[in-house]
Amino acid sequence: MVRYFKFLTMNRHFPFLTSLIILYLIIGCSEKPKVAPILIIAADRDFGTYTAEILKTEGFNEFEMDSLAGGNINSSFLGLFDLVILAESGIEQDEAALIREYVRKGGRLISVMPQPELSGLFGVEPRNEMISGGYVRIDTAKEQGRGLNPALLQFHGLSEIYNLKSGESLAGLFTDKADKRGFPAIVSHNFEQGRATAFLYNLPRSIVYTRQGNPDFAGMEKDGIPGIRGMDLFTEGWVDTSNNTINQADEQIALLSHCIENMLEDIEPLPRFWYFPDSLECLVTLTNDGEYKTEADFEIQFRDIDSMGAKMSIYIIGVDNVSREWVERWTEKGFEIAGHPDDTREAGNPTWNNMDSALRMRKNEIAGKYGLTIRTNVNHWFVWCGTDADGKQDFGAQARLEEKHGIEMDINYAHYDMKSNQGEYFLGTPGKNQGNFTGSGHVMKFAGADGKVINVFQHFNAVYDQQYNESHDPEGFFNCFRGLMDRSLQNGVYSFISVKSHNDEYYFSKTPLLKMLAYANLHNIPVWTELRLLEFLRMKDQASFSGQHWKGNQLKFRLNSAVGDGNGLTFFVPYRHQELACIEIMVNGQPLKFIVRRIKGFQYAMATVKPGENYSVEVQYKK
């Protein structure tokens, strides 16, 4: 008993955990006290803590995060959680024994790039071989892979090669598209009373590399297009453009979600938050680089957009040509006015200090003239700083600078590859099948080369007017947008679509842009500013679930939301759990209407609440 009290008083969850565990010990309760259903064990290296960003993107906002180095991890603490996700490398022998004991006694474990010492948990045998980069193919015949794409999906980073013994392969690992051997990439195994699943490559690292590009190319001119930009990071075959239309990073994220739910299928169903506001299946944002034009030039475009019920973000270089009165009139209508930092004088070699100055100057100009705070950002020419203050390569350096200046969303990654030395359309074919070369339609935070999460969202600009203007293809500009939206609405290839329409190229983009806005209206998809999207994402990230309890065919939990928003916050739960089906959702004692939707192969019951309030939720299941 003494060692339990010592553990409690040293634990960072004291006194909440203390009261729960003391009650547990005193009354000998058969049910363990619930903190959160999921524990992430991770460190600020090897992209371990980015695991939390992946779970939040997938709506699993009910987890605790700790580190093996933190001193809290012992058998009693692990026993509080239904599922442990082990994302940390460099595990010691006693720590490995602790993890094995947790699983042996009935725990559920998902491990990312596990140490060979744990291979027995997953029913595999190490070959003492590694490969760098390659492909994974999800086995869609397995329950965890149901509804996902069976194509060869790229991964980046290292993977350990294992032979399959008693484990079950959920996905195959291939060195390239011609590789016919196939080693296990993801495995699942029943180990005594527990279950264990392993991603045999570093999933968080791969997701970041797929979305942000090759870190070895940071700060380097690679594509032959003047100026170092984010697109230089995707050269030399980094991206398999044949997969652009399937969002290959997102498919692997979805597989992790399926593994989480499968792990808990005989314990409890978990609530999740939906990607989009309300019950939408797509969202559009519209941006405009104002360059050196005047408010008189902007007025025509803004009126057209406003007449379609859409909103736009405009990034202006200077403030001399735009009055405060004009800015206030359009911001009151819901448009966003922000700055357009200009470091093009050193576009071929952007440095930390000069980019820092460019951001500071534009931020001060916008605040001084209009009283506005810049929270989203697009640089002139998309110039991307790829070195830190010491001149060291870091593909997250620009995002770190933005974080320093209070900027919370970046839209500098865009689809533009005209006249590149990488060959025609090295970022993907244009038009309806263009897709997302970042492998993702989600808006997620950046990470630095050190693997640490940067508190700045990355929103990819897929529908870029200059790409299609230079190829004289207005219909392709529209079809690019339509293809992204159709796949999001019809095929579950979910995307937050960002469209760029320069004011000085409005002579080209007006007709296809208005067609896009009409198409969005036809499908009841709103067109927002980047700032409006940012506010929604911040609200969704802040919301959480707590107090989950499954008993008597009823799931109870609390939904906690302290930040309001103009749109609804949607949560969803598995429509079926074991042999039961959801028949009712009660919120604060009152029935709440829900819809049933198939998402990535599985049915879910979805309901929407007003954010900014706390709710008590009861979900009733029945045979």
Report on this structure.
The chain is built from 15 helices and 29 strands. The chain has four domains: 1-33, no CATH class; 34-212, Class I glutamine amidotransferase (GATase) domain (Rossmann fold, 3-Layer(aba) Sandwich), CATH 3.40.50; 284-537, TIM Barrel, CATH 3.20.20; 543-622, Immunoglobulin-like. Helix 10 packs parallel to helix 11 (397-404). The chain is of the alpha/beta class and 623 residues long. The radius of gyration is 25 Å and the shape is globular. Mean pLDDT is 94; it is low at 1-30.
Give a short overview.
Helix content is 28%, strand content 26%. It is α/β, with parallel strands linked by helices and 623 residues long.
- Cα(first) to Cα(last) distance is 43 Å
Number of strands: 29
- Main sheet attributes: strand count, strand direction, barrel closure: 9 strands, mixed
Mean pLDDT: 94
CATH superfamily of the largest domain: Glycoside hydrolase/deacetylase
CATH topology of the largest domain: TIM Barrel
Helix content: 25-40%
Shape: globular
Strands ordered across the widest β-sheet: 2-1-3-4-9-8-7-5-6
Structural class: alpha/beta
Quickly give the CATH architecture of the largest domain: Alpha-Beta Barrel
The total tally of domains equals: 4
- Count every helix, treating DSSP H or I runs of 4 or more residues as helices: 15
CATH C-level class of the largest domain is Alpha Beta
Nearest-angstrom radius of gyration? 25 Å
Low-confidence stretches: 1-30
Strand content: 25-35%
